[in-house]
Amino acid sequence: MEPGDKVWEVFVQKKAGLPFKHVGNVHAYDKKMALQNARDLYTRRGEGRELWVVPADAIVSVPLDEAAAFFDPADDKVYRHPTFYDIPASVGHM
Amino acid sequence: MKITIENSEAKFIVRLADTSVILGQRLAEMCSKGPTLEEDIALSNISLDLFGRADELYKIVAKLDGDKFTPDDYVFRRNEREYYNIKLVEQPNEDFAYVIVRQFLHDVYAKEAFTQLLNSENKELAGLSEKVLKEIRYSYIHCKDWINRLGLGTEESHKRTQSAVDHLMKYVEELFNFDALDKKYFVDCEKLKATWNTEVDTVLSESNLKRNAVAPLSMRDFRDGFHSEHIGHLLSIMQYLPRAYPDAKW
């Protein structure tokens, strides 16, 4: 697109109370256009009842070259999963 | 087969149906030609809403008139002079500003028209009006925002939008030359006109666009099946397939 447009990430909420889910992105020049474009691309088949659009450059993400430092240390720490405890039957589903 | 419409309420509703289908066809011509992928989909969505609206309206027309014809008959087997759409909606897609201004001028009219029809004694029409008003409000917001952007945007966008307004306003006068059918089925014709003028003037002035004086057109009224030169070309494309292959199914 022309200079001046931005990429906006789109989040859709399916029902009241449910979390918003990321569904993709749109190009737009301003907030209103971003919302309308998101509505037309992502909610025309009853996918949602509320929409968020967020400028992609407002999202802070982990630099790709640091992904190993951020995430790999979690790989060998099985003890962090609470699977070693016996759960009393009376607790039911946790 | 000659398509006739006898019932007076059907004659009134077919004007709304024809206006919807012709505008839907004009917007469908924009499919794959939108300025951006997102706007292309937005225009196609509005087009589909208009076709859906027309289909429902033709069903009501058919029912009022004894179910002699189907919506397809009305759309594909009538000639220019048997169409009763407002001339505004048959004007071609000169550029994006024309598309948006035409849609906006139509939506302001349709919004008030269907608001009044919420009170119709015809329950199907009243129910349909409630549904289509949501679609119209969305299309209205979409176009109003675009008129703001184009009017307040660059010198070029302002010039093109002003020229679309100047041209398309010529086709507006006839909307308000109400006849007996309008007076019978709209709740308040004068309010339709007043609301239209107020809303259009507000949006134009906030977008730095002028409503210049328009010389009266010497064209006869859409209510009698009169058109501008463009309807024939539109119909020939829209009706080609079912006219060439009357048994075609899809």
Question: Overview of this structure, please?
Answer:
The complex is a heterodimer of chains A (94) and B (250). By secondary structure, chain A is of the alpha+beta class. Chain A has a single domain, classed as Ubiquitin-like (UB roll), CATH 3.10.20. In chain A, 18% of the residues lie in helices and 23% in strands. Chain A has helices at residues 31-42, 67-71, and strands spanning 6-13, 21-28, 50-55. Chain A is flat and about 55 Å long. Chain B has one domain (8-244): Ferritin, core subunit, four-helix bundle (Ferritin). Chain B contains nine helices and no strands. Chain B has helices at 8-28, 37-64, 71-76, 96-117, 123-151, 155-168, 180-185, 189-206, 231-244. In chain B, helix 1 (8-28) runs antiparallel to helix 2 (37-64), helix 2 (37-64) runs antiparallel to helix 5 (123-151) and helix 4 (96-117) runs antiparallel to helix 8 (189-206). Chain B is globular, with a radius of gyration of 18 Å. Classes of the chains: A alpha+beta (94), B mainly alpha (250). Chains A and B meet through strand 2 and helix 1 of A and helix 2 and helix 5 of B.
